[in-house]
Design goal:
The structure is a single chain. Among the domains are: about 120 residues, Flavocytochrome C3, Chain A, domain 1, CATH 3.90.700; about 130 residues, Fumarate reductase/succinate dehydrogenase flavoprotein-like, C-terminal domain (Methane Monooxygenase Hydroxylase, Chain G, domain 1, Up-down Bundle), CATH 1.20.58.100. About 35% of the residues lie in helices and about 15% in strands. The chain is built from 15 helices and 22 strands. The protein has a 5-stranded parallel β-sheet with strand order 8-3-2-12-19, with helices on both faces. Strands 20-18-13-21-22 form a 5-stranded mixed β-sheet, covered by helices on one side. A 4-stranded mixed β-sheet has the order 1-11-10-9. Helix 1 packs parallel to helix 11, helix 3 crosses helix 4 and helix 13 runs antiparallel to helix 14. The longest helix is centred in the last third of the chain and has 25 residues. The termini are far apart. Pfam families: FAD_binding_2, Succ_DH_flav_C. Keywords: Flavoprotein, Oxidoreductase.
């Protein structure tokens, strides 16, 4: 039962722009909002350096001018083709044309892009791309994270570690007035009044039993935005990285990226990626994409691998075999030393040196849909913005490898600029929304109340297994309907009984898990609802009972919550194009 709101200890403070999420999208938004003259507070659910950006390989799709065959229009077309043509065309065009300028920003911040010489970046490619265009951070995602953290400290931007956004607080007009925040480090609630709020909380990969994402990726921002009245788009599309570790359990699901990186196709679009074999020695991907083969897009590869495993042609441990090309080992070691270290520690020296087959399996990685945004990251809620993996529309039904890093830079900046502009025109009443924040905090205190109950981890594991089995890579109508029935039962019968085992408030990780459950359940229902509605196979969405792509479904599914009911609508794909920039930036030589 909810706790009496009058008894809730609620600390009041204020800022101009509140940003939930300390990954690169949130940090880039914070830099832009601060530079526009606004006070900024960044919320980090854990330590601010422990984000999904840091875990990435640091690959960055952009048109640098070094490949004369390539162009922003070619990048745009690759993005549309990968996304099965349901991307928001304007968002995809903005990504292709602004990515290089944001790469220059990172270089100005101190990032070292991998180079052949002072004026030439090292270029490579990922699965699904037409041309060699990808640049990379020499320190992978760690480098990108560290230079951006430095910029926040340099600007004096306040970063709050172990602060989880719990709810968006709004006034009677539906406008954002602040955020209810759980300060886990002190075990108290904070109401941070603000003029605008940016959701940059990352994705939802922890919805699945096998995941490549960090433990904090529980879909918080999407669930919170949904409850605030924002509309969701393309939420049925969940990207599974094709290859990840199969064992040991401590690293199962951790990404190994794509087969292209383990073969000469990483450098030559006409060459082969690493071969994928089932236990019968067959190159099974040839049945699914005989042209691009193992250099195909992530959706095709992940589905092909999972079908082999489900049909009994996988290894006893639950994977398939990838045969890397030994001649690319030295290049791979230079680009991705951390990956080689992980292969050595978990699989052994022959696999780490590309001298033996590597067991791989798909793993939940990237949420392709999310909050429906316009080109300046505005949601349907006045004052609420979204960027990065929490936003939908950029990638459509599937994302190109190497396109998440430019996405979070391009749209992180745009969200920060727009949120700052909105904040500049608003007044701030610290007490507006305070009562609503107290009521919400009282409701979220229930898991701490005495009494027997169900631990959050038990419910979380049930959601993760159900999502993996029934709302994962292979879907069908009956399973999706059954999953929705279970989710409804969990919400009705189980969620009211969730209790944490410790009543201590400070750094009570289990209490945070109890709050995460509501977000996980909301997003799980969203995904299953949209997946049931889309009666076709497209991109990362595969329906066994509707195995073909259907031109009639070249539409976006949009969902919002009205009361406790999901309202579903479809819309024509937005093919509006952003205007081309007047000039293209030239390559800046390293200093």
């Amino acid at each position: 039962m909810p706790v009496d709101s009058d008894s809730v200890d609620l600390h009041l403070e204020s800022t101009d722009v509140l940003i939930a999420g300390s990954g690169a999208a949130g940090m880039r938004a914070a830099i832009a909002a601060h530079d526009a003259g606004q006070r900024v507070v960044v919320l980090a659910k854990g330590p601010h350096r422990a984000n999904h950006t840091r875990m990435s390989g640091g690959r960055y799709n952009t048109v640098s001018g070094l490949n004369p065959q390539d162009s922003p229009d070619a990048f745009f077309q690759d993005t549309l083709e990968s996304g099965a043509y349901i991307n928001n065309h304007e968002l995809a065009r903005i990504l292709a044309y602004e990515a290089m300028d944001r790469a220059y920003d990172l270089e100005d911040y101190g990032l070292t892009w991998d180079r052949k010489e002072a004026t030439r970046y090292n270029l490579s490619m990922t699965g699904g791309g037409t041309y060699v265009r990808t640049i990379g951070s020499t320190d992978e995602g760690i480098g990108i994270t560290e230079v951006m953290v430095h910029q926040l400290h340099k600007r004096g931007v306040r970063i709050c570690d172990f602060h989880m956004l719990a709810e968006v607080v709004q006034n009677d007009k539906g406008e954002v007035t602040g955020g209810l925040v759980l300060d886990l480090a002190r075990g108290c609630w904070r109401y941070i009044a603000c003029k605008s709020l940016v959701i940059a909380t990352g994705g939802t990969s922890q919805l699945y039993e096998t995941s490549s994402g960090p433990a904090i990726n529980t879909g918080d921002g999407i669930g919170i935005a949904l409850r605030a009245g924002a509309e969701m788009v393309d939420i049925e599309f969940m990207q599974f990285i094709p290859i990840s570790f199969v064992y040991p359990p401590s690293i199962r699901g951790y990404t190994l990226t794509e087969p292209a990186h383990y073969g000469m196709r990483h450098y030559d679009p006409k060459a082969d990626a690493a071969h994928l074999l089932n236990t019968q020695g067959e190159r099974f991907v040839l049945k699914h994409d005989p042209v691009r083969k193992e250099g195909s897009t992530r959706d095709v590869l992940a589905r092909a691998i999972m079908l082999e495993i489900l049909e009994g042609r996988g290894t006893p441990e639950g994977g398939v075999l990838m045969v890397p090309d030994p001649q690319v080992f030295d290049h791979f070691l230079h680009e991705r030393p951390i990956y080689v270290k992980r292969l050595l520690e978990n699989y052994g020296e022959p696999q780490a040196r590309f001298e033996a087959p590597i067991q791989v399996m798909p793993s939940a990685l990237y949420t392709l849909g999310g909050v429906k945004i316009d080109p300046w990251c505005r949601s349907a809620v006045p004052g609420l913005y979204a960027a990065g993996e929490a936003a939908g529309g950029v990638h459509g039904a599937n994302r190109l490898g190497g396109s998440s890093m430019p996405d979070i830079q391009v749209f992180g900046r745009r969200a920060g600029v727009a949120a700052a502009g909105y904040a500049e025109g608003r007044g701030l009443d610290q007490n507006e929304g305070l009562d609503a924040a107290r009521r919400a905090a009282g409701r979220l205190e229930s898991a701490l109340q005495p009494g027997e109950g169900i631990r959050p981890i038990e419910v979380k594991k049930r959601i993760q297994k159900l999502m993996w089995d029934d709302v994962g890579l292979v879907r069908n109508g009956p399973k999706l309907e059954a999953a929705l029935d279970v989710f409804a039962n969990l919400r009705r019968e189980v969620m009211p009984r969730v209790r944490v085992t410790s009543r201590h408030r400070v750094l009570n990780r289990e209490w945070m898990e109890a709050l995460e459950l509501e977000n996980m359940l909301d997003v799980a229902e969203l995904m299953a609802t949209a997946a049931l509605h889309r009666r076709e196979t497209r991109g990362a969405h595969y329906r066994q009972d509707h195995p073909d792509i259907d031109p009639a479904w070249q539409r976006n599914i949009c969902i919002r919550r009205v009361g406790q009911v999901f309202e579903v609508r479809t819309q024509e794909v937005d093919t509006t194009l952003a205007p081309k920039p007047a000039t293209q930036s030239s390559l800046v030589p390293a200093q």
